[in-house]
């Protein structure tokens, strides 16, 4: 009788396991059921709130507290996509999801510094508690849209940097867009302050009576019409 009951338990276990292989994850609690959302999943990250929202068909499905970039190394602002998923370790915690930011390597990942969550603490990446990033990892796929927003000043939420050749970031991309709209720049909006961007800045400065330094300073921002909201 004992052998029959044991055999029945084993059969039931394998039926459940192999019938739902994509919904079971091995962990310290053995097998944990994860509910997969049905609908279009996207992500919204509010850098000022330090919060990540999972959107399901455009409505908030879940939210998590996160850490974002410091004021010196801000998190990119804009619309991006997840281009890679991996199970990493060390400082990146248990999961990594790379974003297609053209000017550097940025992503959503776990951390071995949980006390940093809720702060402006990273070099631009979005940090999560490992248990939360594992849950998020199970809900998204390569190609998932990620909206990252700042305050009313968008890419200049954390102030104006003096931009020079070699600078990278959302603010560089916004300057490229302004120069393009004014007819000075024809390159890509890659957020990288290269020689082409510098040449465009110099041409703009000459035309607008500024010293042609190729550096985007306060006066150049003002002539470009880029100003902080009061």
Gyration radius, rounded: 23 Å
Distance between the termini: 79 Å
User: What is the structural class?
Assistant: alpha/beta
Spans of at least 5 consecutive residues with low confidence:
1-34
Percent strand equals: 15-25%
Number of helices in the DSSP assignment? 5
- Give, in order, the helices and strands: HEEEEEEEEEEEHEHHH
Largest sheet: 8 strands, mixed
Average per-residue pLDDT, rounded, comes to 86
Strand arrangement across the biggest beta sheet: 5-4-3-12-7-8-9-11
Q: How many individual β-strands?
A: 12
The helix content, as a percent range, equals 25-40%
User: Which geometry do the CA atoms define?
Assistant: elongated
Task: Please provide a brief summary of the model.
The protein has 230 residues and is of the alpha/beta class.
Describe this structure in words.
With about 230 residues, the chain is of the alpha/beta class. It is about 25% helix and about 25% strand. It is built from 5 helices and 12 strands. The chain has an 8-stranded mixed β-sheet with strand order 5-4-3-12-7-8-9-11, covered by helices on one side. The longest helix has 18 residues. The termini are far apart. The N terminus is likely disordered.
What's the topology here?
Elements lengths: L1 H18 L4 E4 L2 E4 L7 E6 L4 E6 L2 E7 L2 E2 L8 E9 L9 E4 L6 E4 L10 E3 L3 E2 L2 H10 L5 E5 L20 H12 L13 H13 L10 H6 L7
Parallel strand pairs: 3-12, 6-10, 9-11
Antiparallel strand pairs: 1-2, 3-4, 4-5, 7-8, 7-12, 8-9
């Amino acid at each position: 009788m004992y052998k029959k009951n044991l055999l029945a338990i084993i059969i039931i276990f394998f039926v459940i396991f192999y019938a739902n292989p994509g919904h079971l994850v091995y962990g310290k609690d053995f097998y944990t059921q994860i509910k997969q959302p049905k609908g279009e999943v996207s992500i919204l990250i509010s850098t000022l709130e330090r919060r990540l929202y999972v959107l399901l068909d455009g409505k908030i499905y879940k939210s998590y507290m996160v850490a974002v970039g410091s004021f010196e190394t801000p998190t990119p602002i804009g619309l991006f996509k997840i281009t890679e998923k991996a199970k990493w370790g060390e400082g990146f915690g248990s999961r990594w999801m790379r974003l297609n930011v053209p000017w550097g390597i940025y992503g959503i990942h776990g951390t071995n510094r949980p006390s940093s969550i809720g702060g402006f603490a990273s070099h631009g990446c979005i940090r999560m508690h490992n248990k939360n990033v594992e849950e998020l990892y199970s809900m998204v796929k390569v190609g998932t849209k990620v909206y990252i927003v700042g305050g009313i000043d968008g890419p200049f939420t954390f102030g104006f940097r003096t931009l020079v050749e070699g600078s990278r970031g959302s603010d560089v991309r916004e300057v490229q867009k302004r120069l393009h709209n004014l007819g000075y720049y024809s390159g890509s909006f890659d957020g990288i302050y290269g020689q082409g961007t510098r040449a465009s800045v110099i041409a703009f400065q000459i035309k607008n009576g500024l010293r042609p330094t190729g550096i985007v300073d306060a006066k150049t921002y003002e002539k470009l019409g880029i100003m902080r909201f009061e």
